[in-house]
Amino acid sequence: MQNTIKGSFLFFAKLVSLNIQAPMALRTSFLMQVIFMLLNNLVYFTVWWIFFTRFKEINGWGLAEIEAMYALTAASFGTALVFGAGARQIALKIVHGELDTYLVQPKNPLLHQVGSLSQPSGWGDMITATVLLYMSGYGTLVNIPMLLLFVFCGASFFLATAIIANSLAFWLGHVDQLARQILEFVITFSVYPQNIFPAGFKVILFTILPAGFISYLPIEILKSKNYLWIFGLVAACAFYLALAQFIFYRGLRRYESGNKIG
Amino acid sequence: MKKMINVEGLEKSFVVRKNPDGAFSSLRGLFKPIRINVQAVKNINFSIQRGERVAFIGPNGAGKSTTIKMLSGILYPDAGKITVADLVPWTDREKLAFRIGTVFGQKSQLWYHLAPKNTYELLGKIYEIPKNDFSTRLNDLVKTFEIEPFIHQPVRKLSLGQRMRCELVASLLHRPEVLFLDEPTIGLDVSAKASIRDLVKKMSEKDGTTILLTSHDTMDMEAVCNRVLIINQGELLLDKPVNQLRRLFLRRKSITILSEEEEWDLSIAGVSITNTEPHRKRIEFLSDTVSVEEVIQQSFRASKIRDITIEDPPMEEVIQRIYQEQLGALKK
To answer: What whole-number distance in Å separates Cα of residue B275 and Cα of residue B40?
Structure first.
């Protein structure tokens, strides 16, 4: 027996399918989480609706762009939560020595850990995104393939950030709260139009905290119809994913496993 | 016979941060942490042949789990050589994973909210087992481990004993040549423990699986294994067949006698009567001062015996004695 590309693909497909089934087994809890996330998002967005009743635009961005931006962030984060909520648990698994199960199996332990948990609230984010995209007018049939690509890239940026921040636990120990805060920063800065920030800060949003790639750049691409930027976005996405994988495997050499047993 | 596991000069240490006492010292420790080196495994050597069932016994912190984790590719050793099925665990981790199975008593590989059947299907993909082969193997294991009644129930609703049987099925699906069992009976009741031991032994005999088992429960060792490695403070103290271990360290005997008479007397130098009830006596002695034969003969003379049971001391007692002996003498 050995690893094959087809086998790895079938493993991932099965992992995703189980990943989605598992939280649905607890139906009430699942539905409550979806509904409350949807309400939470819509309540939060009310601030923007009120804002745009008084002001027409912010540096060329109107309500439609803000709706589309928020929709892309919600869809990306929701996708990351539905398919890869395990990324947010990496630090705890490292500290408690719970990566052992994946290390004694022949598939990629990072992929396995990332896909080991699905967060139902992610579905609420995705429903929010669908509603806001429809309202923004950007959710047209022509735009759908591009929007799906943006969501895929956005989810990858969230996952890469979560993996990198959580992998710091290999060196620093208990970083789960720090990792959570870093991810919160990325979410926060991806729901504001970044043309309100000074240039120096924008550099941070396209490097250390890749929030700029998640919603601002995609909306600029849609607005300006400058589709060449898509290549830049995909390249940045591939870079962040590769960096996340590199840091995780570098840290794995320092993994000390748990001492729960004798 | 072919060597399945070979370990030479194995060493592993961990750096542990020491927490100083007192608030001021703790604050200073933030900037100037005190780190100490803990040697978990010290120059361990052993080899295991294909099909052997070996128990790895020792107290908490002895280095059992650290050794198993190095053998299964989870941890890198500081020094020494290991081969498992002719592979080096930490460099050939993925290849080795196809050939070994693991059960960690406190770390489940089953998905908590789903039925074991779902996890088995995922494991079928993880080990890339062909569909027909997977069905045949699963059916076989389901029958052997008698998990049919609960294979479709969520894991969270299973008893610990049921869950452990499902864990074992999960670890055997890909027909591993070596099975590492780390505390497989921890937390189980007496009958569940007995059932797990029987099943593990049966499967090993049927498939020729090599077993390395760690446990705090010496009955696991006695029921499943034919050889024992005893480890303490990172060092290998003893490597003997289980029956030889008993013979070597078995001096205390206990005999329980059921008699026709309610009361009867027995007086032999070096023999103590530890429990007396009507028709029943429990006698204890050291076999190197009084022979079993002499005690039985005297008992037959003194009473009309209905039943007689001769027992060895519990393995805990045997191991306790080994720890107390001079390590140097034991290694010879």
So the answer is: 43
